[in-house]
């Protein structure tokens, strides 16, 4: 299983510790050719089996795996920004916009009858909420919830710890229009990706108080505004059960219940084989791919993805504080080999990730990466003041040694780290693998900065320019785990986020990529197509790049 961090749609999301370890790879240094990004055109944006309501059975249960239960159910708070948590939360939420198969935001009439840009100077958005839309306790979803969510995420109150302030900090005001269902949003400066802010909001009672926002939902779910709600939470057994939300106003969900079980990566294949779970996130695991192929009736689905693996370096102190050491790491690690070993065994194209902002195939993608070139890596180390003595690189008598922190029991993450270790070790830079508990991988190590190098995966969004900012700027961003920034970035991102002309935005985004490759806080490795195995008969759920899952339609095919 991989560990992923999820991007909220104003921010990137982490894959859970088990989800973060996406690529499966073995140590080795032989270069392998990577596929052309155009090869991704052979994969669809959504690969699940579609069925309309008449084609789905009424009733039944779907059981899915997560690597761990949420440590915080508030996905707008930094500790709740994990992909597994977002996957569970998606069954219980929605908002004025959902994302179509091709990645475009479209109106979700369950939540709003309209959501439109009514003025460009100042930029003003007007949202007419659906008066039938309510929280699970029956109270209406109103402008008060939008105001509270904005105030919790706009950065003006330092007691809140949001995932990201991007976009929210450009809102001047949110006010009631003609009634409590009329939301008027006025921006202080243009914000091109404004739809991404309104995929869901928090109940005012959750967002109005910093303590409640930050820690009030570590052991209980936030109130549902979707077709399902949590009916039981077994933290000891690692099971979350959701039932139909009796106050859901939309089409009655097909499923009676949804169950999420915490299952380690090592056990997920056998759980799928035994029928204990109905879907399997294969990612780049050759073992899981082979297991799924032997399950009768199971369908293996592959779509383009938004997930990318990387090496994040803590550059706040130690050897990695030197940009030339970071450039050396980027030049010595064989990204092509990692991509090839990860993707080829599961039947999907193997390509490297050459942009910090865009995925291969997205409009604006250009590959500006430092190439695999150990000789250039030696030059960077010499510029940093290191000399080669025997098989080691030393500076002021101290050998250059590094560590990479990995979550225990997540084979794909460990295997990718072993590839990094092998490449750097063969070059003369010993790397120690530090294994830590899966459950605290982010909260106890990555977020506090207790690491030198880590390799997990970021899950992108349909809004790549604005959502990527928080990974690099400002230095104290809750998602900037590198400990550094470049002073040029703030102005460039402000320019990109306020530019409404698409072509001009792409030019600015290219400048952002150029700056990032100049100081290399992260080494992008490879994009990961979404590869899933789905139980026979499960419809409207599976591999997708962008599309919002309609949980009222997920279920078992009618006979």
Tell me what the structure shows.
This protein has 559 residues and is an alpha+beta fold. It is built from 15 helices and 24 strands. It has helices at residues 17-20, 83-89, 143-153, 204-207, 210-215, 265-273, 286-293, 323-332, 335-343, 374-383, 411-427, 441-446, 464-468, 487-498, 502-519, and strands spanning 4-7, 13-14, 61-66, 97-99, 105-107, 112-120, 123-129, 171-176, 182-187, 228-234, 239-244, 257-262, 279-281, 299-313, 387-389, 392-395, 398-399, 402-407, 431-436, 453-454, 457-459, 522-534, 538-539, 555-556. Helix 6 runs parallel beside helix 7. The longest helix has 18 residues, at 502-519. The chain is globular and about 70 Å long. Residues 15-37 have low confidence and may be disordered.
């Amino acid at each position: 299983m991989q560990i992923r961090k999820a991007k909220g749609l104003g921010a990137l999301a982490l894959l859970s510790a088990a989800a973060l370890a996406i690529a499966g790879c073995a140590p080795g240094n032989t270069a392998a050719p990577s596929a052309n990004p155009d090869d991704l055109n052979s994969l669809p944006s959504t690969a699940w089996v579609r069925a309309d309501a008449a084609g789905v059975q009424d009733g039944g249960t779907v059981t899915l795996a997560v690597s761990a239960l949420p440590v915080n159910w508030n996905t707008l708070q930094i500790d709740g920004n994990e992909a597994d948590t977002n996957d569970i939360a998606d069954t219980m939420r929605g908002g004025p916009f959902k994302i179509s198969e091709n990645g475009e935001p479209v109106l979700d009439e369950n939540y709003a009858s309209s959501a439109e840009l009514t003025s460009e100077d100042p930029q003003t958005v007007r949202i007419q909420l659906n008066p039938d839309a309510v929280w699970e306790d029956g109270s209406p979803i109103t402008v008060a919830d939008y105001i509270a969510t904005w105030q919790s995420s706009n950065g003006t109150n330092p007691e809140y710890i949001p995932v990201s302030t991007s976009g929210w900090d450009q809102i001047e005001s949110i006010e009631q229009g003609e009634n409590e269902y009329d939301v008027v949003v006025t921006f202080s400066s243009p914000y091109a990706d404004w739809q991404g802010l309104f995929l869901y909001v928090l109940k005012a009672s959750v967002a109005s108080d910093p303590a409640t926002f930050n820690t009030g939902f570590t052991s209980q779910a936030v109130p549902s505004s979707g077709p399902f709600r949590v009916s039981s939470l077994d933290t000891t057994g690692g099971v979350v059960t959701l039932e139909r939300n009796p106050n859901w106003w939309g089409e009655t969900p097909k499923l009676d219940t949804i169950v999420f079980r915490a299952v380690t990566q090592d056990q997920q294949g056998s759980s799928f084989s035994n029928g204990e779970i109905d879907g399997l996130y294969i990612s780049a695991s050759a073992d899981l791919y082979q297991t799924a192929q032997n399950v009768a009736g199971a369908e293996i689905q592959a779509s383009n993805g938004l997930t990318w693996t990387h090496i994040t370096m803590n550059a706040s102190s130690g050897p990695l504080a030197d940009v030339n050491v970071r450039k050396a790491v980027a030049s010595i690690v064989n990204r092509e080999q990692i991509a090839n070993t990860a993707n080829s065994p599961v039947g999907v194209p193997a390509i490297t990730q050459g942009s910090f902002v865009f995925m291969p195939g997205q409009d604006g993608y250009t590959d500006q990466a430092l190439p695999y070139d150990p000789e250039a890596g030696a030059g960077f180390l010499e510029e940093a003041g290191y000399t080669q003595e025997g098989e080691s690189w030393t500076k002021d008598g101290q050998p250059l040694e590094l560590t990479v922190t990995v979550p225990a029991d997540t084979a794909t993450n460990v295997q990718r780290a072993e590839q990094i270790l092998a490449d750097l070790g063969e070059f003369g830079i010993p790397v120690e693998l530090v294994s830590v508990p899966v459950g605290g991988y982010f909260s106890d190590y990555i977020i506090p900065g207790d690491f030198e190098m880590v390799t997990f995966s970021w899950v992108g969004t349909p809004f790549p320019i604005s959502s990527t900012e928080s990974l690099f700027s400002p230095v104290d961003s809750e998602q900037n785990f590198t400990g550094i920034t470049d002073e040029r970035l703030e102005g460039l991102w402000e320019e990109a986020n306020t530019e409404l002309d698409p072509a001009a935005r792409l030019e600015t985004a290219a400048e952002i990529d150029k700056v990032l490759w100049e100081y290399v806080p992260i080494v992008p490795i490879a994009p990961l197509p979404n590869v899933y195995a789905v139980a026979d008969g499960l419809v409207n759920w599976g591999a997708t790049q962008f599309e919002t899952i309609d949980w009222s339609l997920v279920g078992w095919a009618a006979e």
